[in-house]
TrEMBL record:
Residues 1-21 are annotated as: Disordered. It comes from Actinomadura meridiana. Keywords: ATP-binding, Coiled coil, Helicase, Hydrolase, Nucleotide-binding. ATP binds at residues 221-228. Residues 497-524 form a coiled coil. PANTHER family: DNA 3'-5' HELICASE (PTHR11070:SF45), UVRD / RECB / PCRA DNA HELICASE FAMILY MEMBER (PTHR11070). Residues 200-638 form the UvrD-like helicase ATP-binding domain. Residues 10-21 have a biased composition (Basic and acidic residues). InterPro entries: DNA_helicase_UvrD/REP (IPR000212), P-loop_NTPase (IPR027417), UvrD-like_ATP-bd (IPR014016). This is AAA family ATPase.
């Protein structure tokens, strides 16, 4: 146990020295806040002044000041997020022979005083690391670590750990550092928001946070081990340490549902980062926000990699050759292209190995050419036939015969004539319809809708892709059904295969380039006519650029979100065990460098399409090249609740070890046999209990607790009926209310002070993953757990009293 400084002195002296220490720290903290205010003022002033100010007349200077303004905006955003708990730690290095050791204050952001001396060390900086890694057994060069607890800007408490006294029993500490501070933090009631834990990050979490940027890091840990908070702090750390790469490319955090992402959204800005995109798998296809889910058996089929083959088959199936060749009537003529020529055109287009919509251009050009030639030949025949007739009858003058012989050696159409003929044909609706039928321009949505609604096509192509009839039959759905989360990887796959015909975009660019040339010409004239010396450094292209400037640049996050082909600098996947193989395929396309943090718990896999092991999903992309870090300590669930959950885990995943709980507080969990109709009373009673034993915030402020009722699919509608006062569903508003009713799936990744689990037998019966669902439900409570059953308590919950 870490020896607190206070233990070594008598109570009165302790109180006095504590007050004195608080006064000293208050002075320091006040200085830090004053500095923060000054920095904010400075950044605000720079921002108000705008890009042109301070740059003098020279254009380059103005550009530089524009960059400085962007930097000021970033800095301001960063400084805005650190008001709460600005400074939370202090480390004193051991004195050496050459004098006292260094002292550093650790904060959410780095600050320097007027003389550029460090006032606060950013928590992500190397110099801050001992704050997180020192243990009594391995203190490194630290003599003391101090946690500072603030309420607003006031220092209200200090917690010390002194490392250079003897007699510290490492074994008692279970690897936990800063225990007093940690437990105080954990005992705070849940506010419906995920808090950042930057002041109490633990050693094992610190290793995750500061692990190198490259490669795939898997963070495997049981419920409540801080995987999510560690992953988010890792995002902040990586952005700080690899700013150059990551500010440009951004970090993508993929989480299980939008509510959950909202929770973590409240953490990241608090850490002062802005270049992070948060998305669910349902949002990875730009322009779509899929939230609906498929039935588990359907999700399993859609999540299988054979779906990639099915989508590819569907695309190929739309590149057709008519068995009897192409016939199309235009301008009173029936033009034809034989099947062999059509086939050659298709093979030439496919050989380009480009997306379908881009290959289409080649195919269309080839067929238009064939049609144009046929038309020319037909015209030719119309003119030639009477002449041939005349020639046969010997009625053709010699000069005309000579002309005809000459023309026979010339091609029928020269280049310009051919281009114009193709152009005319392309504008004929009948020609276009005929070509569209052979090689249509496709959208991902259109392709999948057609496929899902056509049983014959599903049968034919499904068999090609290796799906059996029971599987492809599950894919049928009406065209009006909403897109589901499992459809998104398939849409993404289709988008890759289809690509976009960018001719319109290229035409726009050509026009823009021409316009720009004009701008440059004009700018050159301006430079020549003004002859102003300070413009010497400006090139005409600079001036043209300035002229075309239209609004502030998009942030990395905004640009990344809009671009399906954006390559992120790093991707973090939370609750990663839930991703299907197809979802992994989509995620991996977003990060060609394979720099990922994969966070999850195989024992909590609830989705039938999810992972049974990490290797199953990752080896395909980084065979044997991913590293795993385990988190073993549970910071959420008290020991008594964890004992009950451990029995469930032993039954459903005997090879998984439950995490070791830090907390040993709270009442024992209970089981109550009662009808669901009486549930409202229990909810009321629980709400009063959590209000009564809410310990208040560190500074004494009372914080409200939260309660969740997690019900089996069968009991869920009955619970909604019985407890009408409670909110329902994992929506942001519902989670902000005192009591919320959730399904097991909605409860994933969330936590509450008190949890009532209804119908455990029903949850267990929820398909193959029922046991995992029950394990997840039982581990959502930070203080109280009640299990409600209808006299059918499953055997594996017999530890409940
Ligand atoms: N070092 C820490 N200091 C204080 N609180 C912590 C620490 N680590 C984790 N916690 C708290 O423990 C709780 C669980 O953390 P988190 O939700 O990140 O766990 P998880 O491993 O993602 O859980 P699950 O798999 O059950 O979703 C949170 O309330 C978090 O704030």
């Amino acid at each position: 146990m870490g020896l607190r400084q206070a233990d070594a002195v008598n109570p009165e002296r302790e109180e006095k020295s504590r007050e004195a220490a608080i006064r000293t720290e208050q002075e320091y903290v006040s200085r830090a806040y004053a500095r923060l205010d000054a920095e904010r003022d400075r950044a605000e002033a720079a921002l108000r002044a705008g890009p042109a100010a301070g740059g003098g007349g020279a254009f380059q200077a103005r550009v530089e000041s524009g960059v400085a303004t962007d930097e000021a905006a970033r800095r301001l955003a960063r400084l805005g997020g650190v008001e709460h708990g600005l400074c939370f730690g202090r480390i004193d290095h051991r004195a050496g022979v050459d004098g006292p050791g260094d002292t550093f204050y650790i904060g959410r952001v780095g600050l320097r005083d007027e003389d550029r001396e460090p006032l606060l060390i950013d928590w992500r900086a190397t110099a801050a690391r001992p704050f997180y890694t020192a243990t009594p057994g391995a203190p490194g060069t630290l003599a003391r670590r101090r946690h500072l607890h603030l309420r607003d800007r006031e220092v209200v408490r200090l917690d010390d750990e002194v490392f250079d006294l003897e007699g510290l029993a490492e074994s008692e500490r279970r690897g936990i550092v800063g225990e007093a501070a940690l437990l105080a933090t954990l005992r705070r009631a849940r506010t419906g928001r995920m808090s950042d834990v930057v002041a109490t990050i633990q050693e094992e979490q610190d290793q995750v946070i500061r692990s190198g940027l490259h490669g795939v890091l898997v963070v495997q840990g049981g419920p409540g081990t801080g995987k999510t908070v560690a992953a988010l702090h890792r995002a902040a750390y990586l952005l700080y340490t690899h700013r150059d790469v990551l500010e440009r490319r951004g970090v993508l955090v993929v989480g299980p549902n939008t509510t959950f992402l909202r929770y973590i959204e409240q953490v990241l800005p608090g850490l002062g980062e802005t270049d992070v995109v948060l998305a669910t798998v349902g949002e990875l296809h730009p322009g779509l926000k899929a939230t609906a889910s498929d039935r588990p058996d359907v999700a399993v089929v859609k999540g299988d990699l054979r779906m990639a083959d099915l989508v590819a088959e569907a695309v190929r199936d739309r590149q057709r050759v008519p068995a009897d060749g192409l016939r199309v009537t235009t301008d009173g003529l029936t033009l034809t292209v034989d099947a062999e020529t059509c086939e050659r055109a298709r093979d030439r287009a496919r050989a380009l190995r480009l997306p379908h919509n881009v290959q289409r251009r080649r195919f269309v050009h080839d067929l238009l050419e064939a049609l144009a030639v046929d038309r020319a030949e037909q015209y030719d025949r119309i003119v030639d036939e009477p002449l041939e007739e005349m020639a046969k009858n010997g009625g053709l003058p010699a000069w005309l015969q000579e002309l005809i012989d000459e023309a026979a050696d010339e091609p029928l159409l020269d280049e310009t004539e051919l281009r114009m003929a193709k152009e005319t044909l392309w504008h004929d609706p009948d020609v276009r319809a005929a070509l569209d039928a052979l090689w249509p321009e496709l959208t991902p949505e259109g392709l999948l809708t057609d496929l899902y609604t056509d049983p014959d096509e599903l049968a034919r192509l499904g068999t090609h892709a290796g799906l059996d009839p029971a599987e492809w039959a599950l894919l049928r759905r009406p065209s009006y059904a909403p897109w589901t989360v499992s459809d998104v990887p398939l849409l993404d796959e289709a988008a890759d295969l289809l690509g976009a015909d960018d001719s319109a975009e290229r035409a726009r660019k050509r026009a823009a380039d021409a316009e720009r040339e004009q701008e440059e010409l004009y700018a050159r004239e301006v430079i020549e006519s003004t002859g102003v010396a300070e413009l010497d450094m400006v090139t005409a292209s600079d001036l043209a650029d300035r002229h075309q400037y239209d609004g502030p640049p998009l942030t990395t996050a905004q640009r990344a979100l809009a671009d399906r082909e954006w390559a992120y600098g790093h991707v973090i996947v939370d609750e990663a065990q839930e991703l299907s193989a197809m979802a992994w395929r989509t995620v991996m396309k977003r990060v060609p460098t394979r720099s990922l943090t994969v966070v999850g718990d195989i024992a909590q896999t609830g989705s039938a399409a999810g992972a049974a092991s990490w290797g199953q999903m990752l080896d395909r992309y980084v065979p044997g090249r991913w590293r795993e870090q385990r988190l073993l300590v549970n910071y959420r669930t008290p020991a008594a609740i964890m004992r009950v959950a451990a029995d469930v885990l032993a039954a459903v995943a005997p090879d998984q070890v439950p995490p070791e709980p830090v907390r040993d507080d709270g009442p024992p969990p209970t089981a109550v046999a009662m009808p669901v109709t009486d549930l409202a009373y229990l909810v009321q009673a629980e709400l009063s209990r959590i209000a009564a034993d809410s310990p208040g915030d560190l500074g004494g402020t009372f914080t409200e607790g939260r309660l969740a009722v997690i019900a089996s699919a069968t009991a869920h509608p009955l619970v909604l009926d019985a407890v009408q006062d409670a909110a329902a569903g994992a929506t942001p508003e519902a989670l902000d209310s005192p009591a919320v009713i959730l399904t097991t799936e909605e409860a994933k990744g969330l936590e509450f002070d008190s949890v009532i689990v209804v119908d455990p037998a029903g949850i267990l019966a929820q398909g193959v993953k029922g046991g995992h669902d029950l394990y997840v439900s039982l581990t959502r409570a930070t203080r109280r757990l009640t299990v409600v059953h209808d006299n059918d308590l499953p055997e594996i919950l017999s530890a409940l009293v």
